[in-house]
């Protein structure tokens, strides 16, 4: 009977199946729990990341600490979907509570309860006796809390023309749009409570030159001792001899000229003579008793002819396209005050006067010799003469208001100051975009001349240059402006000096330094000067972007059918950085360029778009 039972296989199948089902069902249960665990973990991570971005936006918009934490919890729980909120714990650490600030940290803890067997807790990562599995996750959001923006704005004479599609002049449209941008970013900045000075603006008005401010005359980065190779570029101190001027003359020692004679005061006597010396010692007659012909005979009172207006020369290449700090150990890096030489009194055969004849020559000789003759600056003449201000006399081509250094617009005082500086801008002169942009970069720098910028290595800070121009770069021959060039300088004087200076340590004028073979060094035409300056601009753009500066460019009312203006539009677009938030509408695989082809009618909206772009820099994942 026993043998018969053993030979009977009918009940063994059911028994074997029952025995086998025990581990199979356990495996299925474990698989279900594991799958659910992975799903809940991923859902928690997704909700955590979403809450991080959303909360960062609330913090950037000025939410209080308590409001930000409440918002984070509500947003996190709303996005959990199938995960019971009661099973999660959220910890929020705000940027102002983090060492170094700038980072929002969200940490989530998930307690997963297995559906089937508590032992699954151990198999799924827990320990013996646990009835839950603990999962933790962290999300960090770096808040780009700080933003430094340099407004580099064209102040040339053409800005007084009507804007295309508008009944207002370009300059008024620009001022309104620029102030609108300050208000847009300043309004956001006023809500920021996580760091100090969250948004700062500088203003660099440019035309033929840039004004760094006359208050900086004694700054360490200015050439106060005449060591720069540019200081004597158009001045011949050797003509100021004791024979020509017995009580106020110059004596050369080494490469420099020193003040000698009883007419100098103690502060100048035996010191190096510089351009600042001329500004200080040039005198005019301000009042007197006159004879019948208007010549002063008695009761003569003297006053300065002019004071330095604050404009500086463009440094020689490569320093003109760099942010290299000024140093006396490298004299070419120092900044030299602009001093427009008095040009010849003579007219040419076409009866054209010199472009900048503002003083009597008091000398004979060639027109080039008259131009560089120094005793004339120390001869007050015999008649009452007026003083010269901006863009006149020795300040010729210095037409812009001074730079406004980086200013915190999160305060009403700072915002008001920047907008007042925008309103004070005046349109006059030529267009030197590279000089404007170079100074825009320098205002963002953490090193002198302007030191308000945060360190370049500081995380969470963006440095942005916004460059706007309504024309191509311009440098003029005297004849093109109806003036003579009897001295052979080949250009009027501005930040790059003369194209052919009287004396230079370089092979040719600064406008041609650092340019390629496609720029002729003997073509003295406006078009060739534009080409040379455009090459400087391209190099400058590359250098600034390589240093981490974001560049935004705006072409205002430029005509693509005009060869020079079309070239400028292309140069501006090439100079611009790539957007971090927008794609190129013509090729979505590429980022959009931060370039705006604006008209007078569109300028306001384009500045709003720039504000939106800058706002997007404030938060990154």
From TrEMBL:
Q: Where is the Putative Flp pilus-assembly TadG-like N-terminal domain?
A: 11-58
Q: Which SUPFAM superfamilies match?
A: vWA-like
- Top-rank taxon of the source lineage equals Bacteria
Q: What is this protein called?
A: Pilus assembly protein TadG-related protein
The organism of origin for this protein: Mesorhizobium album
């Amino acid at each position: 009977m026993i043998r018969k039972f053993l030979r009977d296989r009918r009940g063994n199948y059911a028994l074997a199946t029952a025995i086998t089902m025990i581990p199979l069902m356990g495996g299925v249960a474990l698989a279900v729990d594991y799958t659910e665990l992975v799903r809940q973990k991923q859902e928690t991570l997704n909700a955590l990341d979403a809450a991080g971005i959303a909360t960062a936006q609330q913090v950037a918009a000025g939410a209080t600490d308590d409001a930000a934490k409440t918002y984070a919890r509500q947003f996190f729980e709303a996005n959990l979907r199938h995960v019971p909120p009661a099973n999660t714990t959220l910890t929020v650490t705000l940027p102002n509570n983090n060492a170094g600030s700038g980072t929002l940290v969200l940490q989530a803890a998930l307690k997963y309860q297995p559906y089937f067997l508590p032992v699954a807790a151990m198999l799924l990562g827990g320990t013996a006796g646990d009835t839950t599995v603990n999962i933790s996750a962290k999300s960090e959001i770096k808040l780009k809390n700080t933003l430094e923006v340099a407004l580099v704005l064209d102040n040339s004479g053409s800005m007084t023309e009507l804007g295309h599609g508008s009944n207002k002049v370009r300059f008024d449209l620009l001022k309104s749009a620029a102030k609108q941008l300050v208000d847009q970013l300043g309004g956001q900045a006023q809500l920021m409570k996580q760091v100090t000075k969250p948004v700062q603006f500088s203003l660099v008005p440019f035309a033929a030159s840039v004004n760094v401010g006359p208050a900086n005359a004694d700054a360490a980065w200015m050439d106060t001792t005449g060591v720069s190779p540019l200081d004597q570029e158009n001045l011949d101190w050797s003509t100021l001899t004791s024979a020509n001027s017995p009580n106020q003359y110059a004596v050369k020692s080494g490469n420099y000229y020193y003040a000698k004679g009883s007419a100098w005061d103690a502060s100048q006597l035996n010191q190096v003579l510089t351009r600042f010396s001329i500004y200080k010692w040039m005198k005019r007659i301000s009042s007197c008793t006159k004879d019948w012909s208007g010549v002063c005979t008695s009761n003569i009172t003297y006053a300065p002819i002019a004071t330095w207006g604050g404009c500086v020369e463009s440094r020689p290449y490569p320093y003109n396209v760099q942010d290299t700090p000024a140093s006396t150990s490298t004299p070419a890096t120092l900044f030299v005050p602009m001093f427009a030489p008095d040009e010849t009194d003579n007219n040419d055969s076409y009866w054209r006067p010199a472009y900048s004849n503002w003083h009597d020559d008091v000398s004979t000789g060639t027109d080039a010799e008259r131009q560089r003759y120094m005793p004339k600056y120390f001869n007050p003449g015999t008649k009452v003469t007026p003083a010269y201000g901006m863009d006149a006399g020795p300040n010729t081509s210095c037409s812009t208001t001074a730079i406004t250094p980086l200013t915190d617009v999160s305060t009403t005082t700072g915002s008001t100051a920047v907008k007042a500086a925008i309103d004070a801008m005046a349109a006059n002169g030529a267009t030197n975009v590279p000089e404007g942009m170079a100074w825009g970069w320098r205002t963002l720098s953490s090193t002198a001349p302007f030191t308000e910028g945060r360190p370049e290595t500081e995380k969470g800070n963006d440095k942005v240059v916004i460059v706007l121009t309504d024309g191509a770069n311009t440098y003029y021959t005297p004849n093109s402006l109806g003036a003579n060039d009897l001295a052979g300088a080949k250009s009027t004087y501005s930040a790059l000096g003369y194209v052919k200076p009287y004396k230079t340590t370089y092979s040719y004028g600064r406008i041609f330094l650092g340019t390629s073979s496609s720029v002729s060094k003997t073509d003295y035409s406006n078009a060739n000067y534009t080409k040379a300056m455009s090459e400087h601009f391209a190099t400058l753009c590359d250098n600034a972007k390589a240093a981490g500066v974001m560049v935004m460019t705006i072409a205002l009312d430029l005509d693509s059918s005009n060869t020079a203006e079309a070239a400028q539009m292309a140069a501006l677009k090439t100079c611009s950085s790539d957007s971090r938030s927008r794609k190129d509408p013509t090729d979505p695989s590429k980022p959009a360029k931060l370039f705006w082809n604006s008209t007078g009618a569109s300028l306001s909206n384009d500045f709003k778009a720039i504000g939106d772009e800058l706002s997007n820099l404030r938060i990154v994942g």
